[in-house]
Amino acid sequence: MTRDELHAAAMALPGATLDIKWGEDHCYCVGGKMFCATNGAYSNLGWKATEIAFEALTSSGRARPSKYLARAHWLNIDDLARQDAAEVADWVKTAHALVAAKLTKKLRGELGIA
Q: What's the number of CA atoms in the CB half-sphere (13 Å) around residue 32?
């Protein structure tokens, strides 16, 4: 997946915004809550996963638990360019949905999230 593909996939989601944090990290958020992040070079990716995806991707070695957010089912990969764009876009879409589901009903309505 390329930088442009990741950016397009994340920003196509309802209410998604891009915020630069911690110097150069590109953090994609919904309702002010982060659902995925990458470094400025877009060489890695961190994202919130479902419990099942977390177990499957870590046990297969395709991803590793996030250093500080593993308890919240966050994963990391270091080789974003080698990943299938459609699969990563699906991970990002799921991450967005997981985070958006925790927002208030009012905020989801304001953001156009059903």
A: 4
